[in-house]
Amino acid sequence: MCIAYPGLVLSVEDGAALVEIDRRRQRASLVLTPDVRAGDWVVVSAGTVVERLAPEEAEEIRRLLDEAAQV
What we know:
The chain has 71 residues and is an alpha+beta fold. It contains 1 helix and 5 strands. It has one helix at 55-70; strands at 7-13, 16-21, 24-29, 41-45, 48-53. Strands 3-2-1-4-5 form a 5-stranded antiparallel beta sheet. A hairpin with a 2-residue loop joins strand 2 and strand 3 (24-29). It is elongated.
């Protein structure tokens, strides 16, 4: 099973996004989600942005994963 931590899109250029996930930055393809913009919260899987999240949804997922990591 793969659990994806929400990431914040810092910038978008040439069909790719620079995404910060848990204080790490990575480039991710926007081939599946070309409408993503800087400031969006997203889910990245296998180097590709697969879903855009509402800020509230991203915060809830982050909170739940942080709690699970404490167990």
